[in-house]
Amino acid sequence: MKINLKVWRQKNNNTPGKLVEYQLDNISPDMSFLEMFDVLNGELTKKGEEIVAFDHDCREGICGSCSMYINGRAHGPQTGATTCQLHMRSFNDGDTIVVEPWRARAFPVIKDLVVDRSAFDRVIQAGGYVSVNTGSARDANEILIPRTVADEAMDAAACIGCGACVAACKNASAMLFVSAKVSQLAILPQGKAESQQRAERMVAQMDAEGFGACSFTGACSVECPKSISLDHIARMNREYLGAKLTSDNVQG
Amino acid sequence: MAWVTQTLSSSLGRKVIMSLTGLFLSTFLIVHMAGNLQLFKADGGRAFNEYTYFMTHNPLIITVSYLLYTSILVHALMALVLTRHNSASRPVKYAYSKPEANSPWASRNMGILGTVLLVFIIIHMRTFWYEMHFGSVPMAEYDGKQYKDLYAVVKVAFAEWWYVLLYVLSMVAVGYHLAHGFQSGFQTLGVRHPKYTPIIETVGRYFFAFIIPAAFAAMPIYVFLQVHGIL
Questions:
Q1: Which of A147, A159, A236, B144 is the most buried (most CB within 10 A)?
Q2: Given a cut of 90, is residue A133 above it in pLDDT?
Q3: Where are the domains of chain A?
């Protein structure tokens, strides 16, 4: 396949970037999108040019590292898949493909297609955990959890924190990510004890990081590689409003 | 009271303000539409004028009307605050974006639709509300009692084809705004349930986004056709 690439090149966060065109002639339709970038970087290395920086790790859709905005969509034209799970057969011979980094105030560009997603880590640090001593493993049936509840929590826990929800949202809102992290703990008995302060703190941190508000366009859920449902956003809204109305935290 | 101000200034709190004012304005539309159906009565405007008299003299209605004006202002101002904040959340825009692949148009353009509606509301209130309260409206007499003849003002306004067109187009904007807004209001409040969400969506999509704007749009068209002797 012949592919025309327009890739965002940016030296660092302080330098303005621009789209640079590249042409690749021998691309196999069976290559993954990232392998196509490996080919590009191989050619750039041969020419002595600086390679395109992009995030990647597991390349099997579970680490959440890869983060490309491809032809106007987070993780490209497929739904329910990450960039590494996208294959060149999804494109036609001679296509022009525009590749940009996630764009959000809270995700500053580090270089080219690599953005700093540590804002997500700080949101998790604010309350996305259960503070108990783990000790030795408990008996599996000690705390009874209905299967449907466990499934619902697992659906939320499928979030890999890639940031596609932020990238796809017109407001660069992190509501789907934060709500998945609130949800996965809020509906399980282990997480219930701290559910009020968790919702309050994680939403406060989300706001402090500079993410936008939710317009309920649904773009996040469509572009989410794990197809996380908007139900979780509603649950977080309930958790947050309930906490604000009933918690004993009068300072805010 | 730090928790109150902090809650209301959080991104979720701001959306709750949008939701509550928006849902209140939606319920107002039902009353406004139902009342204005008097325009379809072929009695020379008597029912309409009597209804107008009631609406401007009943103390409960007058109280609620101040809540209504406040809601419109708060809804519009909070939308401005949110739009600025949301826009600042992505300082560098995408060179190429395809949002139509993942979200409905109305959901992404509530601000534009809302601006159209705000302009419409100003024009609408200048034509009828301002005339009724501060303008010189001719009087009509029914059973020896004097009424302001707002129906006469309605007839003059809707005799103009461009004014009718303005109303019809604005009602299309109402439809799109509510198609997204009504169900979003519930999502913001966390009201999402497999039993009730489909009902909320149906009510939003068919009643608020179609029946209500269609009934409103029918009023100027009906009066226009009547004034010009077509009906």
A1: A236
A2: no
A3: 3-111, 118-246
Q: What is the pLDDT of residue B115?
A: 98
Report pLDDT digits (tens) over A88-111.
Answer: 999 999 999 999 999 999 999 999
pLDDT score, position B12: 97
Over residues A62-84, mean pLDDT: 97
User: Which residue is listed with tokens 């010189």?
Assistant: B136
Residue B106 CA to residue B99 CA, distance in Å, equals 12
Helix (H, G, I), strand (E, B) or coil at A6: strand
Q: Is the confidence at residue A76, as pLDDT, over 90? A: yes
Architecture of the domain whose range is A3-111: Roll (3.10)
The answer for residues whose C-beta is within 8 angstroms of residue B41's C-beta and 6 or more apart is B47, B48
Closest residue of chain B to A78, computed from CA coordinates: B101
For residue A98, give the nearest of B10, B95, B107 by CB distance.
B95
Q: What is the ipTM of this complex?
A: 0.93
Of A140 and B152, which is predicted with more confidence? B152
**What percent of chain B has a predicted confidence (pLDDT) above 90?**
98
pLDDT at A10: 97
Q: In what order do the strands lie in the sheet with A3-9?
A: A18-24, A3-9, A96-101, A68-70, A73-74
Q: Are strands A68-70 and A18-24 parallel, antiparallel or unpaired?
A: unpaired
Q: Of all residues in chain A, what percent are helix, strand and coil, respectively (each to 5)? A: 40, 15, 45
b/e per residue, A89-121, with b = 16+ CB within 10 A? eebeeeeebbbbbbbbbbbbbbbbbbbebebbe
Q: How far is B193 from chain A (nearest CA, A)?
A: 8
Residue of B1, B8, B9, B89 for testing the chain A interface, max A β-carbons within 10 Å: B89
Distance from CA of A216 to the nearest CA of B (A): 6
Q: What percent of chain A has pLDDT over 90?
A: 92
Tell me, what DSSP letter sits at residue A60?
S
Nearest chain B residue to A210 by CA distance is B89
Measure CB to CB from residue B12 to each of A73, A77, A237 and give the nearest one: A237
Residue of A nearest to B90 (CA): A104
pTM of structure: 0.95
Do A215 and B110 count as a contact with CB atoms less than 8 A apart?
yes
Question: Is the minimum CB–CB distance between B108 and chain A shorter than 8 Å?
Answer: yes
pLDDT at A251 over 90: no
Kindly state the DSSP code that residue B205 receives in the 8-state scheme: I
Domain ranges across chain B: 12-85+107-227
